[in-house]
Prior knowledge:
The chain is of the alpha+beta class and about 150 residues long. About 40% of the residues lie in helices and about 15% in strands.
Amino acid sequence: MARAKYRSSDVDLMARMMRAEAEGEGKQGMLYVGNVIVNRLVANCSDFEGLRTVPQVIYQVQGGNYSFEAVQKGNMFYQRARESERRLAKQNLDFWRQHPAKYALWYFNPYAPCPPTWYGQPFAGQFKNHCYYEPAAGTCDGVYSG
């Protein structure tokens, strides 16, 4: 059973975002970004309450900006999805989860060492340039069951 309901267009959109955010970190890095996207979709808590579709996650606006920087700044996001990234996105939507992004809802590239917390959320781990953060204990149980 898939982790989340999705359509073919969702796979394309997610693949484009994974590539735009993490192509420089290879397939593994793109899979971690995909984990965060699916986690936000299934968590239904915190900043991600009420998100029900992949487009709602990708195009979510917080504090006047898109949650994913690539939507507003990345021309790579607006290129067609390639089959290799489509396969990765489908893996994430169907089953794939792995540390450090297994339960992560946030990630960023600090261009410095990863801080131990980010907006009060504990550090889960790092892959190449991205730091991943899980929800604080007891604040978002949906991410652990989805």
